[in-house]
Design a protein that fits this description.
Blueprint (H helix, E strand, L loop, with lengths): L9 H15 L10 H13 L3 E6 L4 E6 H9 L2
Length: about 80
């Protein structure tokens, strides 16, 4: 299920994004980005809907995935 980011308090959304960034261990190549920069990048992706905040009822978890990955997963069901 997609969670509309506007339905969350800003602090809650920031916490979710921070947890995602810290747990993913995302590699940004040779450039080193601060946590704040990574959070801003993910927030922008959520705002322009190139990434989605999704809730898994099965696992009772919240995750951030690329929109195209969500569409591909949905098409394969």
């Amino acid at each position: 299920m997609i969670i509309p980011i506007k339905s969350l308090e800003p602090a809650t959304l920031t916490s979710i994004i921070e947890q995602f960034v810290l747990s993913e261990g995302t590699d940004y190549g040779e450039t080193v980005y601060s946590l704040e920069q990574k959070v801003a990048h993910v927030r922008l992706q959520l705002e322009n809907e190139s990434a989605l905040l999704v809730y898994s009822e099965l696992h009772e978890t919240v995750n951030i995935i690329l929109s195209q990955d969500y569409a591909n997963r949905k098409d394969s069901l």
